[in-house]
Write a structure and sequence with these properties.
Blueprint lengths: L1 E6 L3 E10 L6 H4 L16 E6 L5 E5 L12 H13 L8 E3 L2 H4 L13 E3 H9 L4 H12 L2 H14 L22 H11 L6 H4 L3 E4 L7 E4 L4 H4 L3 E9 L3 E10 L2 E10 L2 H18 E7 L4 E6 L7 E6 L3 E6 L5 E10 L10 E9 L2 E10 L8 H16 L1
Antiparallel strand pairs: 1-2, 2-16, 3-4, 3-11, 5-6, 7-8, 9-10, 10-11, 12-15, 13-14, 14-18, 16-17, 17-18
Helix pairs in contact: 2-5, 2-7, 4-5, 5-6
Pfam families: PBP5_C (PF07943), Peptidase_S11 (PF00768)
InterPro entries: Beta-lactam/transpept-like, Peniciliin-bd_prot_C_sf, Peptidase_S11, Peptidase_S11_C, Peptidase_S11_C_sf, Peptidase_S11_N
Catalytic activity: Preferential cleavage: (Ac)2-L-Lys-D-Ala-|-D-Ala. Also transpeptidation of peptidyl-alanyl moieties that are N-acyl substituents of D-alanine
């Protein structure tokens, strides 16, 4: 492996070339790639898509952009906003969530919350992820956004940010209502974002659990996605069924570091749904391999900031990046370019300061932002003076 440094007027480029045996890629660039060979899968589904979670590369699709009712697979977005609210500090896992009369009135799949009953956020998430609790979904939505309507707006806003152009949500749980639709492709994008929060698979991948465990009336949760028990590597994500939507599923499975998302919509029965998702997964694991080069949030390098109040600033990968490769193909050479723009203080945490570019044969195949790990203000005169004096002694030694 060689390392070369290029210094330009607007950026510094660190080029690292090596022969790689593995795969993954940046989300936006890889998301619309099509498989080299079309195969006959998901025969009875109205629509389907098979996607590499690390890269967004589409391995198989069938009517994947058709707008359809998603039923309870809607809760993929509900759970994503919950995970992001926790990460941002807006809510905590041990927060007590109150059940309103409206939340308790939800029909369909539920954990039978009573008006005024309280559970922790973690318990509510279990009820949503494992038992598909419509009542729990509304209760949490009201806690985070003040109302279901407010939370629905957050769902639609986040969908747009993820590039979901075939989606509009009207509620948080997927119960039949007007103007509530999405596509298999959009659900895969949401699911891909959700599984970046590794903790969520502790719940979506659990076959069973309990709520009110220490009470007189414990509630046994059994996962609506039976594949988490019977398919190797399956750890989620969400099933759905209504008379209009039929049987739907957004599934996630991981083997040897290679995670795959499979979405089917409009399946005629639950057994057919499970069988066709299993076939999609089998196809992916039999024909492809993937390994991440840079994880989202991973420190890539540190750089000196001229006149910054800290001498060095860590730079992080803005998203997961790498390459996807079909099994049985010849080893090829890929290059990773770390491009750092000219950076001057002040710098804000999360500010884009460069990029990571993956190339194959000189062609760019993947790219993600390089972002600042922390704030970096402008240094005062005394700090700069001390830094200069220190450099004299360092040089003299």
């Amino acid at each position: 492996m060689s390392l070369r440094t290029f210094v330009g007027r607007k950026s510094m480029v660190f080029l690292c070339a090596s022969t790689l045996l593995f795969a993954s890629a940046a989300p936006a660039l890889a998301a619309e790639k099509k498989p080299a060979v079309q195969v006959e899968l998901a025969k009875q589904a109205s629509s389907a898509v098979l996607m590499d979670a690390a890269t967004g590369t589409v391995l198989f699709e069938k009517n994947s952009h058709e707008k359809l009712p998603p039923a309870s697979v809607t809760k993929v977005m509900t759970m994503l906003l919950i995970m992001e609210a926790v990460d941002s500090g807006k809510v905590k896992w041990d927060d007590k969530i109150n059940t309103s009369e409206y939340a308790a009135s939800m029909g369909g799949s539920q954990i039978f919350l009573q008006p005024g009953e309280q559970m922790t956020l973690e318990e509510m998430l279990k009820g949503i992820a494992i038992a598909s609790g419509n009542d729990a979904a509304v209760a949490v939505a009201e806690h985070i956004a003040g109302s279901e309507e407010g939370f629905v707006q957050l769902m639609n806003d986040r969908a747009k940010e993820l590039g979901c152009t075939e989606t509009n949500f009207s509620n948080v749980n997927g119960l039949p209502t007007e103007n509530h639709y999405t596509s298999a492709h959009d659900l895969a994008l949401m699911s891909r974002e959700l599984v970046k929060h590794e903790r969520v698979t502790q719940y979506t991948g659990a076959y069973q659990d309990y709520l009110r465990k220490d009470s007189e009336k414990p509630f046994w949760l059994v996962n609506t996605n039976k594949l988490v028990r019977f398919y190797s590597g399956m750890d989620g994500i969400k099933t759905g069924f209504t008379g209009e939507a039929k049987y739907c599923l957004s599934a996630s499975a991981k083997r040897d570091g290679f995670r795959v998302i499979a979405v089917v919509m409009g399946e005629p029965t639950s057994p057919v749904r499970n069988s066709e998702v299993s076939q999609l997964m089998d196809y992916a694991f039999a024909n492809y391999k993937s390994e991440v080069l840079f994880q989202k949030g991973q420190e890539v390098q540190q750089v000196e900031i001229d006149k910054g109040d800290t001498p060095k600033l860590a730079l992080l990968a803005g998203d997961t990046v790498g390459i996807l490769m079909k099994k049985g193909t010849k080893k090829e050479e890929y290059q990773s370019e770390i491009i750092v723009n000219e950076i001057q203080a002040p710098v804000k945490k999360g500010q884009v300061v460069g990029s990571i570019v993956i190339k194959q044969g000189g062609n760019e195949i993947a790219k993600t932002d390089l972002v600042a790990a922390a704030d970096c203000g402008e240094a005062g005169m005394w700090t700069l003076f001390k830094r200069t004096v220190k450099s004299w002694f360092t040089f003299g030694g």
